[in-house]
Amino acid sequence: MARILPRQAAAAGASRDVELLAGHTRDEQRLFTVFTGLLGQVTPEEVQTAASRRSPRRNSTCPP
């Protein structure tokens, strides 16, 4: 079986009968920080550093 990307499968109609559940990863991240004891401990500078490591091209256009 050939592998295809999820967006290709969706474009081909594979998800046409699936209801959409929308959310924000911010909410998921908050849940994970509770379990690790980091809730409220991460500074904006640390977020910016982590974001720049994962997406250096977009980092220059992201607000602090």
Task: Please give a structural write-up.
The chain is mainly α and 64 residues long. The chain has a domain at 22-64. 52% of the residues lie in helices and 0% in strands. It starts with 5 loop residues before the first helix and ends in a 5-residue tail after the last helix. The model has no long low-confidence stretch (mean pLDDT 81). Residues 45-64 are annotated as: Disordered.
Task: Give the SSE layout.
Layout: H1 6-11, H2 25-36, H3 44-54, H4 56-59
Question: Short description, anyone?
Answer:
This protein has 64 residues and is mostly helical. The chain has four helices and no strands. The chain is elongated and about 45 Å long.
The number of helices is 4
Unreliable stretches, pLDDT < 50, 5 or more residues?
none
Using only CA atoms, what is the Rg?
17 Å
Q: How widely separated are the two ends?
A: 44 Å
The run of helices and strands is HHHH
Query: What helical percentage do the residues reach?
Result: 40-55%
Largest sheet data: none
Choose one word for the global shape: elongated
User: Overall pLDDT, averaged?
Assistant: 81
Strand content range: under 5%
Q: What is the number of strand segments?
A: 0
Class per helix and strand makeup: mainly alpha
